[in-house]
Amino acid sequence: MKKPKSPYIFDWHRILYEDGVHIEYSITDICNRNCRSCSHLAPLASAPNFVGEEEFARVCKELYRLLPDTHTFWLTGGEPTLHPAFPRLLEKACGIFDNSYIGIFTNGIMLKKFAVYDKLWDLTARNGIVWAVTPYDIGAEYFRELFAEKNCENNLTIVQSGRMFTKLVNYSKDQSVSREKYLKCGWERCKINVRGGRIYNCPSSEFCDLFSAHFGKRLALTESDYLTVDENLTRERIDRFRTAMPFCSQCDPSRRFKDIFMNSPSERNIGEWSEL
């Protein structure tokens, strides 16, 4: 198991372009924040969609079989710490991906509750678990002090402040589908996005069902837009999958990172995610 010998550095450039596979496993759709233009569309989730423990273990074992060179296995959501079996899922991930970093993308709100849960901090220390925190309104200093108190200083990385947002999802019509567009997209270059037993190329397709259900705008997700994680899946298929998909015709990334705004509550307005 890898253990950070110095504070873990969260490097977007490294994750998107340079090193090995990063798996992001969405274990729930819901979140305890309500952020405008959330890239995982959590404000639109009408049900928790908690992954079952057996299903989680099954998918993880298949992924490890296929991707033993995984650099980091991230638990995400929604807010992953809201899952009622979160500590057990975390422990299962550590046992299966024993040569990878295990990480959690979190807003940190539940860490106030977990502050007295010694087993979780012991699990974090023993397995070198990385907590990637976006502190939002709490402030980074609280988390630095908490992790220092638990002798886990090197297990904390601050992703960003959470004060500024940008629209990453922009559902549109009649967009191009090309390798060139995929390469320019630059969002998920080294990531394997997993939700509901499937691999997706990016959150836009991964969470499009939440958009369709909430707004009644049926986005077309075909069998070519995802891979089913089972015993028939091969590494070759995963490698070939990482290119433009039919779903790209419903996504316009040209304005990504151009619309920057102060973090604010979502009003669940369709314009937060689409120009349809």
Task: Characterize the structure shown.
- By secondary structure, the chain is an alpha/beta fold.
- It is built from 10 helices and 10 strands.
- It has helices at residues 12-18, 53-66, 86-96, 111-114, 118-127, 140-149, 179-185, 203-206, 208-215, 235-241; strands spanning 22-26, 72-76, 101-106, 130-133, 156-158, 164-166, 191-195, 198-200, 226-228, 260-262.
- Strands 5-4-3-2-1-7-8-9 form an 8-stranded mixed sheet. It has a two-stranded antiparallel sheet with strand order 6-10.
- The mean pLDDT is 91.
What are the key terms here?
276 residues; 10 strands; alpha/beta; 10 helices; two-stranded antiparallel ribbon; eight-stranded mixed sheet
**Structure summary, number of beta strands:** 10
Neighbour order of strands in the largest sheet: 5-4-3-2-1-7-8-9
Biggest pleated sheet: 8 strands, mixed
Shape: globular
